[in-house]
Every structure is written in C-alpha cells, then in structure tokens.
Amino acid sequence: MDLKNKAKLRTWVEISKKSLLHNFNTFKKLAGEKVGIMSVVKANAYGHGINEVASLLEEAGSDWFAVDNLDEALTIRLTKVKKPILILGYIPITRVKEAIENDISFVLYREDFLSKIALFELGKKAKVHLKIETGLNRQGLSPNEAVKFAMKILQGRKVELEGISTHFANIEDTRDPAFAMEQLSHFKTVLKKLNAKKIKVSVIHCAASAASLLYKETHFNMLRLGISMYGLWPSKEIRNMLSLKKGKNSIDLKPVLEWKSKLAQVKTLKAGESVGYGRTWFAPRRTKIAIIPVGYYDGYDRDLSNNSRVLIRGNSAPVVGRVAMNMITVDVTDINKVSEDDEVVLIGKSNKERITADELATVLGTINYEVVSRINPYLPRIIV
After folding, report:
1. pTM, full prediction
2. 204 beta partners
3. CA nearest 375: which of 340, 354, 343, 348?
4. What is the mean pLDDT of the chain?
5. What does the DSSP assignment read for 221-260?
6. Per-residue pLDDT tens for 74-88?
7. What is the mean pLDDT of residues 312-338?
8. Per the residue annotation, which of 28, 42, 127, 131 is the catalytic one?
9. Which end of the chain is more exposed for a tag (fewer CB within 10 A), N or C?
10. Long-range contacts from 336-339, C-beta under 8 angstroms, 24+ separation
11. Spatial contact of 348 and 384, defined as CB atoms under 8 Å apart
12. What local confidence, expressed as pLDDT, does residue 157 receive?
C-alpha cells in the first residue's frame, strides 16, 4: 500500500526505505567486500512487513534471506525474491520436499531427514546448512557429531552441504564475553575438523547483529542480520558503547518503523468520572480524553494501561484506563486544537518528541524485539 491511501486507514505502520537502506549499507561497510549479508526477515521482518522489507533489500543487494519457517520462505519467493533463502527454524519432515522444489535451503540437525530426502525423486539437490550447538542448547548438532554427520551427507547424492552455522547465547554481554568466545572456539574447532577431512562449505555464518557489531572474528564470510538492520540495538550496553564513539568507529542506526493511528473521538469528562474496563483511572479534574482505535489485538500491550503515552501534534498524551482489545484512551487536556481524525504516533516521531520501541520495552519489562515483532501482521505496512 502506498502513502496516498493513508486517508483510508485507521491504524498502520510506516517503513522508512531511507533508514532501512542506511542500516543495510552501514553493515555492508562494516563487513567489507569479502563478507556477505544474510537479511533476517522472520517474524514478519521483526514486525516491519516481510514482503515490503524483502523487496527493498533484494533491490539493495542482500546476498541471502533468512526466515523461521517454510511458509515465510514461500511468501518472499512469491514477491519475486530470487536470492537464496535459508529456513533457520523447524521444518516438518513432511514439507522438506516442498522446500527443495522451491530452491529453499534449510538447517539440518536430524539424521532422519537424510533418509527421507534419499527417497525423493527430484531433479535438484536439497541444500542444507549444518547447525552446530555450541552452548545455546536449542536445535543443533553437538560439535562431536558434526563431522560424522557431514560425512554422511557427502556419502549420499541428494544433499548439498551448502553452509554451517551456530548461534550465540549471550554475546550481548559486553562486560564478560568469555562464554561467547568459548562458543566461537567450539565452532572454529568444527571448521578445522571439516577442513582436515577436505569437506568444504561455501557459507559460514554465526554473527547476528550483536556479534556483527562487536567482534570481527565472528564474521567469517556472512553476517546474519536481524534487529539492527531495522535500526534497533541488540542491547542498551551495545548502544551505549557504539553510538557514542566518535569518528569512523561510530555506528549510527536509524529506526525503520513508525506505528501510527488516528483519533476516533474527543470528549470531555467531569472530575471523578472513570475511564475503561475495571474503572482503573478517574479524572482528577475536568478532562478532555481522546479514543484511539488500537488495542492489544493490534499489538499494543495491555500492560501499557495507565503506563504509557502517545504523541499528538508533537505533544505527549498519557494513556488512561485499560488498554482494550481494539481501543485505548488518552488524556489530551493539555494539548491545543485536538480534533477527531488527528494523526497519533504510537512509536516514532512527532515534531521534536519521539517514542521508541525501547521506551515501550522498558515500561513492559521486555526487549525491543518483542515490542515490534508483536505488531499485528494484518496492519498495513506503508513504505515511505
């Protein structure tokens, strides 16, 4: 959907093409010419819109795309994404053939998949990436199993060992990187053993956003970029460390997403009147309130009840009463010239004021990843 149709909308998400490409190019420069970029667009591109983001990044020159599941992979294939796609998460064994037919790679960590693939009569090989378990203890092969498993792959004729990867458990902890470096050491040991057996893989990746920003030795030949490509920092510690640096070593990430709505109604309450379910807020004075058509169904968390703010005409308006399924109420008493259909900023900038995903995450006691990825995928995403 384009910006011309915004007048027809009640709640929507705006995606800044300029900011997305700025972040992508920041990491391209950081990585250098010999290291590729795998753009992670799982979870509806972290809430930003999988089709919109994938199209922009395909045009920008992303070398790979990573998703969580086969349906996400097929979605971006249908948007004309030609670059390689890797499924990072679980794929049912009954759908492996579908992935192969659509030229979609997937992580491999179970031996039963090999026997299943051996039965397929296809004109192309399955492309797989070994997932090495080095300490996160989620899906993956132990380092001791990896070489043996790779040898089994090579003994068959229907599987191509395309890549190898691992994932860090706490690399965001800038105070003590010891465990992350231990994981990296385990990963390097597997690579050495594969090399000793003359087993070659073309794509080696373990650096998600935090590792990409902090440790060049994790880059190998591919960065696997998620949260920071969308202009959000993996942690406050990394933001404070890198955004405050001066000169060529500084990193400037630009938030890509703005979440907006409109005022459905403005009305005046007498002092003492309550607002919302459970009567959790009472007007302390004669109060002007505004109703906004967004709620927890849309991804605006119920724990933001009486505990957050929105922006209207460049001013803060506190959320009052409980967040409902499809509505919130805000106090606009101190904002001049408020009227129905005014634009509301839930995340983003209005004049000199800004509400960030990190601000909402702090209120909710969570992380920015959750705030943006839970924005309802049915809300329109508009590239601006």
Report:
1. 0.95
2. 164
3. 348
4. 95
5. TEEEE-GGGGT--S-HHHHHHHTT--GGG-------EEEE
6. 999 988 899 999 999
7. 97
8. 42
9. C
10. 337/313, 338/263, 338/266, 338/288, 338/290, 338/312, 338/313, 339/263, 339/266
11. no
12. 86
Give the pLDDT confidence of 332-348 residue by residue, as tens digits: 999 999 999 999 999 99
Q: Does the annotation mark 277 as catalytic?
A: yes
Q: Which two tokens stand for residue 64?
A: 């790979």
Chain centroid, CA 35 distance in Å:
21
Contacts of 360 (CB under 8 A, 6+ apart): 301, 304, 308, 347, 371
Query: At 294, which amino acid appears?
Result: V
Arithmetic mean of pLDDT, 238-262 = 85
- Give the C-alpha distances (Å, rounded to integers) separating 102 from 23, 58, 117: 29, 17, 15
| CA distances from residue 147 to 89, 113, 343 in whole angstroms, order as listed | 21, 17, 57
Judge contact between 256 and 24, C-beta under 8 A.
Answer: no
Distance CA 297, CA 378 (A): 10
Nearest to 136, CA basis, from 176, 174, 165, 107? 165
- Residue 256 has a pLDDT of 98
Which tokens belong to 257?
């997403």
Domains observed in the chain? 17-249 (3.20.20.10), 257-383 (2.40.37.10)
Q: Is the pLDDT of residue 313 over 60?
A: yes
Candidate list 18, 152, 216, 277, residue with the active-site label: 277
Length of the chain: 384
CB 67 within 8 A of CB 92: no
